[in-house]
Amino acid sequence: MATHRVRARPPRGSAQLPRLRRGDELLTHLADAARTPGGHSPALAEPEDEAQVAAVLRAAPAVLPVGAQSSLTGGATPFGEWLLSTARLTALEFPAPDRVRAGAGLPLSTLEDEARPRGLFYPPVPTWRGATVGGVLATNAAGANTFKYGSTRAWVEALTVVLADGGVLDLRRGETRAHPDGFFEVVRADGQVARVPVPTYRMPDVPKRSAGYHAEPGLDLVDLFVGSEGTLGIVTAAELRLLPDRPRLWALAFLDDEARALALVGDLRAAARRRWRTDPAAGPDVAAIESLDARCLALLREDGQDREQGVRLPPGARCALLIELELPGGATSDDSQAQLAGWDEPGADGPLPAFVRLLAGHRALEGLELALPGDLRRARQLLALREAVPEGVNRRIGEWQRAGQPTLHKLGGDLIVPWPALPGFVAEMRTRLERLGLDHAFWGHVSDGNLHPNVLPRDEAQLKAGLQALLDFGRRAIELHGCPLSEHGVGRSRIKQQLLRELYGEQGVEQMRRVKQALDPHGRLAPGVLFPAERE
């Protein structure tokens, strides 16, 4: 039976403070993927168990927990805090046929490699497999597969969390739910009871959100920590649900017009939903669709990534869609190839012929690249091509910083809107950036209505103009009943913190502050992440 009260226990393991890295040993840890300038820290600790995590919390005046430091919001760049790396928290076990218990520092690529021989997979894995379990929990991360499977939160069964005072919570879904009056009670290790209020703001009704503390009636305490960006406690391990793996086919399709590409996405979404609702035997089973615009394709050519991954980018392509299909169990490469080849024969039916007919109807067969079931090498090449785009943008920003413009930084949006609003929204954003003369690239998980508009500023004037444009895009997403903070979190980004305030209002941010005050009364965990450490 669920209760609203949970008791912390003492940490297990060695209570000895782990070796601290200082000085030059920290240089590679002073910036995250956002290339936020100015990072600094007096020490980095790499605890091996929850007791060492607690020892670091006792010794440090403030702590910033980090994993792969792939944050795109500045949330993993230190500004005076001790860094607490989860790199050595990598335990892995399978406690049940459909469960995995993983340490916070375990890379998702390792989880996948261990699950695959067991015939299992973790559905909401983000596009970049180098992310860690703790990192995706911190932001409720959600990659392309959210279209079919939802975001991280829905797949978390249990958490182990070290609180700011060193006490440890063992949380299991369904066991600790908010009191009907809207609060939890956490009994600290010293016996004191902390009353944790549940925020009352309403979150946007979209498939993915990484927009502050989760809130809903009857909130499960597990869900409060998922997406809290390390500000309420440090997750050391999690139990995640898995599903039986299925054969997959990846297709990289090219179109000569962005509007036509979005129309194809709409038809693929509709076909997949019909299959799920009414006819499991017909139509393509679409798990995800990723999009790359014309500037993304140009970046790939400039960096030689098309040649490195063995993919020909048609000269006239203005947009590319990377489509992931799930196939019936037992589907093989030979069977799939035969079905694809016979898509236009009389009587051809099934998911693959239906898929090719949709592509043909939108003139998307020219240059089509495929990774057939079992061809993991080719699938990895297609996925690497997509991932090379944000890597290329980040590298350019770093080069410009080193070339004498240290205050330049990446400008990236993280927006989701209801699908019917997406085509018009994309056109609005594109027109604004072109009018300002700003170099920009759009990519993202288009099957969710989730895109990442990115601006590459070359000077301070462009930086200022780009910041204002992204702020306005976020406001427009709110007007369209979407969310301006879909999957990367809020971090220390001033734009994202402003959008968080506009999404929930000052009262909503104040409610989040009260949650943090209850669990971290001295503000020692990730100060300045989500909202400024001091009230403005």
Give the overall shape: globular
Largest sheet: 8 strands, antiparallel
Q: What's the tally of helices?
A: 14
Give the percentage of residues in beta strands: 15-25%
Proportion of residues in helical segments: 25-40%
Point out poorly predicted stretches: none
Number of strands: 22
Distance between the termini: 42 Å
Q: For the residues shown, what is the average pLDDT?
A: 93
Question: What is the structure about, briefly put?
Answer:
The protein is an alpha+beta fold. It contains 14 helices and 22 strands.
Provide a descriptive summary of the structure in words.
This protein is an alpha+beta fold and 536 residues long. It contains 14 helices and 22 strands. The chain has helices at 50-59, 108-115, 133-139, 146-149, 221-225, 258-277, 294-303, 305-308, 333-341, 351-361, 376-402, 422-436, 460-479, 494-519, and strands at 5-7, 20-21, 44-45, 63-66, 82-85, 92-96, 99-103, 120-121, 156-162, 168-172, 183-187, 193-197, 234-241, 243-244, 248-255, 285-293, 319-326, 369-371, 411-412, 415-416, 440-445, 450-455. Helix 7 (294-303) crosses helix 11 (376-402). The model has no long low-confidence stretch (mean pLDDT 93).
